[in-house]
Amino acid sequence: MAWTENLTETRNRLRTLYKTIPNVTKGFGAMSKAVKEEGVLDFKTKEFIALGIAVAIRCEACIGLHVEALIKAGTTREELSDVLAMSIQMGGGPATMYAGKALECFDELSAA
Question: Where is the Carboxymuconolactone decarboxylase-like domain (predicted)?
């Protein structure tokens, strides 16, 4: 899978959705911003949690967006791998398959 293309397609779908239901998506955007900026956990920790959930619920688009954010936040492959291990523990076999996708995404996007 080409994760760069996946991210472009995800963003294009989101732009269309935002235009279709702007009030809902503005509200969701405001909530997302507040969650990331407030609280005692730092941004990177919150993104680790989001990635773990994305792997456990098997959301490829979410994996791409959160891995990209983690790369920008300076995440190492070892840190990401530790989060993926916890995701597998919580999500079992299906999470194992999506953890592989998340690692592949990290490797591709961090090399770009």
Answer: 22-103
The CA distance from 110 to 45, in Å, is: 19
Single out the residue of 70, 59, 67 nearest to residue 13, CA to CA.
59
The alpha carbon of 108 is separated from its chain's Cα centroid by a whole number of angstroms, namely 14
Residue with tokens 């235009």: 19
CATH code, domain carrying 57: 1.20.1290.10
Task: Identify the domain containing residue 97 by its residue range.
Answer: 3-111
> Could you read off the pLDDT of 22-75 as tens digits, one per residue?
999 999 999 999 999 989 999 999 999 999 999 999 999 999 999 999 999 999
